[in-house]
Amino acid sequence: MTHHDVIIIGAGFAGLYQLHRLRGLGFDVRVVEAGGDVGGTWYWNRYPGARCDIESIEYSYSFDPDLEQEWDWTERYASQSEILAYARHVAERYDLRRDVVLNTRVEALDWDDEANRWTVTTDDGATSTARFVVAATGCLSMPSKPEFPGRDEFRGEQYWTSSWPHEGVDLSGKRVAVIGTGSSGLQTITAIGPDVASMVVFQRTPSYAIPARNGPVGERLREVRGHYPEFRELSRMAKTGFQCGEEETGWFVETDRDTADRELERRWLEGGLCYTQTFQDVLRDAEANEAASEYVRARIRQKVDDPVTAAKLTPTSYPVGAKRMCVDTGYFETFNRDNVSLVDINEEPIRRITERGIVAGDTEYEVDVIVFATGFDAMTGALNAIDIRSGGTTLREKWATGPRTYLGLMSAGFPNLFTITGPQSPSVLSNMMTSIEYHVDWIANALQHLRDHDLERIEPDPAAEDNWVTTTNDVADLTLMPRAASWYMGANIPGKQRVFMPFVGGVGTYKQYCDGIAIAHYHGFELT
Ligand code: FAD
Prior knowledge:
Belongs to the FAD-binding monooxygenase family. 31% of the residues lie in helices and 18% in strands. The chain has two domains: 2-142 and 377-527, 3-Layer(bba) Sandwich (FAD/NAD(P)-binding domain); 175-372, no CATH class. The strands form five sheets. Strands 1, 2, 3, 4, 5, 6, 17, 18 and 19 form a nine-stranded mixed beta sheet that branches. It is of the alpha/beta class. It is globular, with a radius of gyration of 23 Å. Helix 1 (13-24) runs parallel beside helix 14 (432-452), helix 8 crosses helix 9 and helix 14 packs parallel to helix 16. It is built from 16 helices and 21 strands. Residues 9-15, 32-35, 40-41, 43, 45, 50, 52-54, 59, 105-106, 136-141, 184, 382, 386, 420-421, 431-432, 436 line the site of flavin-adenine dinucleotide (FAD). Flavin-adenine dinucleotide is lined by residues 9-15, 32-35, 40-41, 43, 45, 50, 52-54, 59, 105-106, 136-141, 184, 382, 386, 420-421, 431-432, 436.
């Protein structure tokens, strides 16, 4: 059995940077990763068209100015392969691999209250111990795989976007079914449409998608490189951890209708996720949101030739931004192709999978390949998959009615266990790189503080945690966000408690609050 100061679970962007930071502080650290290489999300999700929807100049590490200057992004929105190459470059550049154990899954964590340390059990049967554990397990790393009756009988090929074969899949000339129209489904559908013989898309909920306006990053990268420190500081203080010109953004309720329409058009033409920040009140005020939602709906109706298909693709049942927004490059136009059709499973529910294809309503759709783009058990899935035990209870039991954390960083009763981008932090509502770096630095500073003061243990005070959970819920209720049955709410997982999980109060606000907690001698935490 080996002992380490810190064991980190996961070698995505969070785990890699946490290793680098803690190693730099002289801690003995080991990373355990289930996958066959570093990169996390970008290692697993290799489906056709996989791409970031935050701009590459924002979706990158800021911790080393040399790294910022030397890495060349090629496009405004980086592809999966380029982001994975970046993660690998980082692993090499900082010599991280020597402390990363690959192809190994952490199955259990057991807290020893006497010795103040965790016992970590992995799927190869080995155990190790660590004073601290950092769960860098990812918010979107536990695929949701709904059971479809008859799936085993299907004679064709089946793939999940979340674990796409590394050698790639040749879909050309094949009849393909895609189930799911969230971000991954939408990117896959757009990418494979021109290659496949035919494609039938099964949709439960239509997505709002804003054009990416992707292209070479070119001049913009050179310009930002000239002032990266200031640029990053603005991103850290921005609401979403990336810049949308918030300082110039007005309120819909104070704007006349012509000006409002021009603003919506400007944002639409700029492209990308800043669309919901056209006005300060888009995610707070029903009228403002309806204007922003209707603008997108009108664009969808313009893009799709067949009015019946257009109506099915147009989201009407929830406010724009309340489910994860998509960024697209020709998604809606894909449905103008003769070889592509759409099935609304609210009208024609999927009854079963047969050896030949999918039965929805009264029709059997015969296909050669089924692609499942069915999303993730978001935010809590990867954590709850580990048997985490402390003081006679498990984290899974504690979180049965929804996650409970202090600042999204720790959960009371589970000392010395940190979660990067955990529930009740901005996480999935932000540029994850900004949020990851913030949490990693906060945790590194906390561990250094403990060591400097000869302390061994940190855990949240239950009262502080209760307050934070209440605050998170109250802030969410001030917005329109809980009005959609989204994965932010756990609504895509049968039986999962419906609670709005991320902190919606903004990255900059959150950072200031957590900085203040640390300065106030880790107020709300017990340090012993
Ligand atoms: P991950 O990258 O998920 O890495 C976690 C790692 O932990 C995984 O490799 C996993 O194998 C490992 N792990 C989990 N449990 C265990 C265990 N028990 N034992 C061992 N290892 C374990 N974010 C954005 O900000 N912008 C985007 O445009 C964007 N696009 C995305 C597109 C897709 C398709 C997906 C799935 C996510 C996207 N995200 C995006 C979110 C993305 O997850 C984060 O940006 C970021 O990559 C998360 O890094 P991470 O290290 O926290 O987690």
